[in-house]
Give the backbone structure.
Amino acid sequence: MPSFLFLTRALCIRSPQLLEAVKELIQEANFEVQAEGMSLQAMDGSHVSLVSLHLRSDGFEHFRCDRPFSMGMNLVRGD
């Protein structure tokens, strides 16, 4: 069964600044997506900093995840 994720605009005004700060430390990340929201945990390239981020589902205008899955993303390019 394929996974389904539907989300629209984050309600948090600081989300663009947040992602800019994260991508200064890590270029690629795997987001764990589930009904409660999206999270990631990753080390920077020199293994000095640990980034731990959780975006709760109620922080989005609309958020729907039918079943948990992992989603890889290049934060620099946005894909």
